Structures are given as C-alpha cells and as structure tokens.
Amino acid sequence: MTSVPTATAPSAPDTAPTATGRIGTGSRGTRILGLVALVGIAVATYLALVSSPPDENMGDSVRIIYIHVPIVVVAYVGCLITTLGSVMVLWKKSVWWDVTAAASAEIAMVTTALTLVIGMAWARPTWGVWWVWDARLTSTAMLLLLLLGYLAVRRIPAETSTRSRRAAIVGVLLLPNVIVVNRSVTWWRSLHQDTTILNTLQPKIHDQMAFALYFAIPVALVMFAWLLVHRWRLAWMEQQLEDRELDQAISDRRAEAASGRAEDGPR
Amino acid sequence: MEPVVHLRSAVSLLGRFPALAGVDLDVMAGEIVLLQGPNGAGKTTLLRTLAGLVPVVSGTAVVLGVDLCRDRRSLRPRVGLLGHATMLYDELTVADNVRFWARAARSSRADAEAAMGALGLDGRLQDVVVAKLSTGQRRRASIAVMVARRPELWLLDEPHAGLDGEARDVVDGLVRHAASSGATVVVASHELDRARHLAGRTVTIVGGVIAGSGAAPDVAVAAEPSTLPMADESTAKTEVHHVP
Amino acid sequence: MFRDALLVAGKDLRIELRSRIGINQILPFALLVLLLFAFALDPDSGVLDRATPGLFWLAVLFSALLAIQRAFAIEAADGNRDGLRLSGLDPAGIYLGKMAAIFTQLAVLELVLGVGVLVLYSAHVTGWVLMIATCVAATAGIAAAGTLYGVVAAGLRVRETLLPLLLLPVLSPVLIGSVRAFEAARNGNPGEGWPWVGLLTVFAVAYTIFGAFGFGPLLEES
Amino acid sequence: MNDWGYVALAWGVTAAVLVAYALWVILRGRAMSRRLPPEDRRWM
C-alpha cells in the first residue's frame, strides 16, 4: 500500500521514455564527493605504502592494516545503516529507507568479503596461517553469511511493499545477530586462547603509523558515501521502473476491458 | 443504508499483475450478487480482495464498515471465503478440521456440529481423514467450515463445482437461508442457470473492471463480450435488488 | 493470544501424531546422522568421545531444519495459509502455537537422540540439571528463531535452500552455547556451563518476543 | 612470498574489487537512466 503511486493516473503515451538531460547516477554533489574520495585515497595510499615506516614486530605487513581497518569500518557502518533503514521501514513504511537499506547492505557485503580476504592476507605473514579461529575472523565470516541471507531475501521477486516488509524483518535482526554471534564467539574463544588483532597491534604504535590509519578511515567513509549515493540512485531507478511497468499494466488491462476482449491471462 | 461492500476505482495486484484495474461496486446488506465474467477477468481476485486477503493498492474499498486500505485483519474473521482451495488439513478428520476453524473464528462447538449436519457430514463421515475423502466430500467439508464460522459476508467462488445435484440444492438452500437472516452473498459462477435463480442481481467483470450490472434476468449473459455495456459509475450503482 | 496458541499447537501436534512424519522420517534421519558421524570419526581413537556434545547438537540442528520445513509445509497445502489469515487467529498466537509444537517435537527428538548417544557412543553423563536446562533453553531458541525464519521462507519457491542460509548463521550462538554447556556438564564443572545457559535463555526470550511481533506482517505475504 | 607480496595481495584485491563494483554500479545506472524520464531522476 505504500510504494505504488496513484495507479489511477495512467502514463499511457510515454511507454518508452527517452531520457533527456544527463545520463547516469551522477550529479554535481557526487562528482565533488568522488573527487574528494579519489584525492583522499591517493594521499592515504602514499601514507600507507610509502611514507610510513615498517613496524618493529610485523615489518611491512603492517601496511595491510591501513586498508584493513577502514574497510572493516565501512562494512560495520553499512550494516548499521541497513538495520536502521529496516527499523524505519517497519516503523514509517518508508520507501526511501527501504532503498537505503538495500543499497547499504550490498556495499556492506562487498566490504565484508574484502575484510576477510585482507584479514587472511595479513594473518598468513603474521601468524603463519591463512585462518585462525579468532573471534573477530569467525564472527566476520558469520556476518558475511547473514548479509548474503538478507540479500537473498531481497532478491525474491514480489510486490514492492511485500518485499520491503519481508526484507525489513530480516534486516532489523542483522545487527543484533552480529552482536550476539560476536559475543558468543568471543566468549567461546576466550576460554582457549587470547589472540586478537588489537593485542598484536598494541605495542608502541608509531605516530606516523597512527596518522596513516586514522587518515584512511574518513577517506574510506567518503568513498562509502559516494558508492552509497550511486547505488541508492540505481536501486531507486529500478523501483521507479517497476512502478512504471505496473502503471502500464493497469492501463493495458483497462484498455483490454474497454475493447471487451479478455484474454486468458493469469488469474 | 450503508452498503456492505463499497469499492471505488479499487486496484489489486497479483504479484505485479493488476488483476483488478479499478473496480466500482456496491453491494447492500442481504443481497445475493452473481459475479460473472470470462476466465482471467478478475473474479477470484475480487472475492479475495473482498475477503481482505489481497491488498488494495489504490482507490477506495470499504467492506462491512472496514476500510481495507487501512486494516484488513479485523475484517477477515467476519467473512467466509469458499475458494478453489479447500483450506483443509489432509491429515485431520472432517470433524477436527471443522472444529478447529470454528474455534479459531470463535464460533461455538454447536455451530460446528450443526454445519456438519447441514452438509451431511455427521455420522461415519466426520471421523474420516480428509485425505481419504472424494472431491465432492472435501468440497462439502470446506463449505461446512465456512458455515460453521457464521460469516456476515459470504464469498463463494464456483460453489457448485464438483458437487452432485443434491449437494447443490443444499448449498443453494444454505445461501438463501444466510441471505434471509441478514448475511450478504457474492457468488462467482460459471453455472449461470443455477446461479441466476439464486441471485437477485448480476455483475459482470471483464479485464479487471466492472463491465455491467443489472437484475439477473436482464443481462445478456452468454452474448459476445463486445456487446457488454461499458463500465461507468451509473451502471455500477443502478438496479439494486433485494432478495426477500 | 494464549488461547489461539494452544489451539494452533494442539492442531499441529495432532497432525504430527496422525501423519507420523516426525517419527517415521525426521527421527530416523537424526539417528542416521549419529551413525554417519561415527563412520566419519573413528570411534576407537577417542575423537568421537570428545566430539559427542557437538555431534549431538549438530544432529539436533539439522533435524530442526526438517521439522521447521514440515511445520510450514502443512500450512502450504491447499490454501491453508489463506485459511490461517482468514481465521481471525491472533498472529502472535499462531507464532507461539507453532513454536510450541516445534519445541515439543524437538524435545522428544532430543530425548531419543540422547539415549542414542548414550548407547551408541557409550557416553557417560554427569550434571543432569545443567544438561536439561541447556536442552530447554537451546530448544526454545531454535524453535523461536526457526518459526520466524520458517515463515519468511514459507511459500516461496526457494524455501528449501533459503531456510538453512537464513537460519543456520543465526543459530550459531545457540550451537556454541549448548555445546559448551554440555561439555561443562560432562567435565564435571557445571559452574562454567551456567553462563551459557544464561546466553541461550536471553536468545530464546529475545527471539520469542520479536517473533511474536514480526510474525503477523510476514504471514500476510504469500 | 615476502611481506610486500602480501601487502600487494591485500591492496590489489581491494582495489580491483572496489573498482569493479563501482564500475558495475555506474554502468548499470547509465543503462537504467536511459529507460526513465528525468522527472524520476530528480538529482539531475
């Protein structure tokens, strides 16, 4: 009942709308945002790979941390926005938030997968293995699975309001589930061993290293914002197109009734 | 008097297909209305919409005083829908099924027993598992469930299908009795001869809109669809006949 | 609400008693899983003995998937989902009723599996109280989350594959908690197990509350 | 593989995936916007 616009206004003639104006999902705002992100990424890369010194313990593999942490932050922020959006869908029946939750969940999925790959690339030189049953690694893997489940629910073809409500209920549980999984895994591992990334990283963090890390996080967030806006607009257009097809189908059906020929369509 | 069913430009979707593309319909209390139209015209969807199962995505829809755009849940227990599906649990006996749905609708056990009696399901048949029933017996059990729920609005989708002559008379009797005791009935049927005897008024639906409405004997039923009157407000509202 | 829950639970359990799908198919499946674990892990090497709590709960989890699919398959038949929606039953009541029915079936299953583990794996048991508390809390959690995600997947063409993808990650804390609690009971220090029972209880209560609210909107979608 | 190898792996994979994803979003956005009139794309 929410998303379908006034179906009584049939958009009859413009069945094949030829776009006028500019093409794509960009706008003045996103171009500025994109430029800021690109410059930021260039500076952050220079700081991380060139200007900062190698770590006393980890050597050059510390440079993986400078990309690992920002990507994790993006993944977590993405999940947060997805859950927030799902709450707003259930509360206000908001289409805007539904599109936001969907766009943000997809980016979170990509960055969570990247987090795992980067994490493994760091674990191999540091711990000598690709994977350890560390609480963070394990719960990040579960997070990826939860996000895949959410996106799978979103992909089920259904009427717009049906889909948004169904996805919202799964999405609301995303963050609580991540927290419960994380707590239980941490609790579980704490009985056995005590290796976490933070403990390995703690001793004497160099000023320049800290700056490379803390500079990269806001840069990653700007990049996230740029991606989110574009992905949002794409999802929005997909939804508009569906609504448009629906309006068309309604006016087709009316025309069919008016011409008095009812074909054996789906009941 | 306020109509029991009041639809204006109501649009309902099946998936992404607009099965109802703007329906105008009024039904008064105690009426028996025959709904007719070709396959795919939207008869079943109209009945399911009136039952509060299919959402109305635009337009106005008020049934039994409940606005379907706002609230469909409170309407549903007051409506009885006899659809193509029997809504029976195969593993349970006839009596278990009727009693379960009757209790769910807060009808008394006596209502359940009476409904089974009226459809000839008392005695040996009531302890048979539904999976072992014939199609006609299932159909009767399904009708018994509906009667036992004591609905205010009866929505019957092809109620005569799969029934023998005797059972059809029983169904017709139940419908007349329900209408005379204040319930409202909408019947969708292909068996026009039988249904027209029952109904006080015929409504034709084509392509998801109401194409015509009139006293049962007046409507050119089996004629070419192209000769049907066009949908407009005036025809949809006229000629409301009450059945005694 | 509780009246409706009793009605639905009674109906579901009656169907299970009549159809015996649970006894004839799900229970043998669970026992089969126990046997397969024994084939995979050499019983003489001691691995099986140490892994017993985990194997027990994995068997329960896989059987729970079948039980949940089954609980919604009976509603999928011949328009019964419409029937439920038309019935006037409180959705929270339907949720609690279906959850109670799944809980009961799983409890019976765990009892039989427990006996199976005792006999087949010749496990010795201490800490009965802790184990029973763990079973109750964990089963409630599985039933609560399972009923909620079961209705998300119910009625879809992809339900057989979607339900495990949605449910198993969510239930991983339950698996961790129940296995650790069982290990604590077996090792004779129940003090380590009770915090896990606490976690399981919080999980079950939280999911029951959320499920009771979320079930209505989900039941609407067909 | 020395440390720099793993650093290159991590940064390389990240860059490749993010660029590929961004390209996919942009190109699909361009394709989609051709099928919609400007009033449905109010950010223009």
Question: How is this structure best summarized?
Answer:
The complex is a heterotetramer of chains A (267), B (244), C (222) and D (44). Chain A contains eight helices and no strands. Chain A is mainly α and 267 residues long.
Give an overview in words.
The complex is a heterotetramer of chains A (267), B (244), C (222) and D (44). Chain B has helices at 43-50, 94-104, 109-118, 135-148, 165-180, 192-198, 233-237, and strands spanning 5-14, 17-27, 32-36, 56-63, 66-67, 79-82, 153-157, 184-188, 201-206, 209-215. Chain B is of the alpha/beta class and 244 residues long. In chain B, a hairpin with a 2-residue loop joins strand 1 (5-14) and strand 2. Mean pLDDT of chain B is 80; it is low at 217-244. Chain C is an all-alpha fold. Helices cover 84% and strands 0% of the residues of chain C. Chain C contains 8 helices and no strands. The longest helix of chain C is centred in the N-terminal third of the chain and has 30 residues, at 47-76. Chain C is globular. The relative contact order of chain C is 0.15. The model of chain C has no long low-confidence stretch (mean pLDDT 88). Chain D has one helix spanning 3-33. Chain D is an all-alpha fold and 44 residues long. The mean pLDDT of chain D is 86. Chains in contact: A-B, A-C, A-D, B-C. The interface between A and D is large, with 46 and 31 residues.
